[in-house]
Protein 1
Amino acid sequence: MASPSQTTTRRRKSSSSQTLAQMDHSPALSPGFIIRRLIKHGKYIAAGAAGIWWLDLVTAVENLLESPDSWARRILVAAGSLHALTLSIFLYLVVFLPWLRGYIPNYPKWQQSRRLRVLFPVLTASILLGWSCFVFALNKTTHPAPRSSIHERIRGALDVPHSDGLGLFSSMAGATAIFSLTFGLLGLIPAPRVPMRMRKVK
């Protein structure tokens, strides 16, 4: 006669097997899932793209790269490099490990993983330093950015005064818009719908 503990263990194994079987036979990405994901992350993409367009950050970056202020240009390059590092770490975590290596790191216990112990602090530092560098560099934009007719009509309707450069507040909004667009696009990457073992990245 089986003991209560053995019966409980068998039930847990059976339940786990059923769960894995359901995941194995889960349907492909449905239109409803795609729509919900677009709605969830689309607002960040829209907000980031709108901020970049409204502040004309493309022209501001071009002006900074052509600016005689070498420090602002160097800080802008540093901001771009840090942003690229942030993007690379996120792609490593959400694309390379799940899709190419076939497992998900044990994020709740990241301190027990030698690799995640390094990646997480580096990721946090790259985000904070990258955002700060973007703010400092964009705040040094001194050339007036050319506006389109749509810009001018909207600013005229809102009675927004024209000013040379972005200023501190607009620079902070611009840096936030860049990260909002980046994280929104990264959020569109779906997680694999297959059973995977939660393993530590060594």
Note: Residues 32-194 form one domain.
Protein 2
Amino acid sequence: MDRKKKIRILVGAQIVSALTWAVVIVGCSHQLEGTGGYEQIFNILIVGASTHFLLISSLIAELLPGGKKDNPPKVV
């Protein structure tokens, strides 16, 4: 599989993932509104979504030209 196709797949996965997390966060927020656990659960969901976003972004960065795989660190 060529690099451009891999990038398209990862970008598509990131978009689907972002939409999934958005639906989960909004759904949980709606269900927990007015309860004592709203803020705690909301913070956990935000941390999970942010972590997932960073992981997928790092995968995309490795596949882009000039990424980590193209320029390995040089040992002095």
Note: Helices lie at 3-32, 38-63.
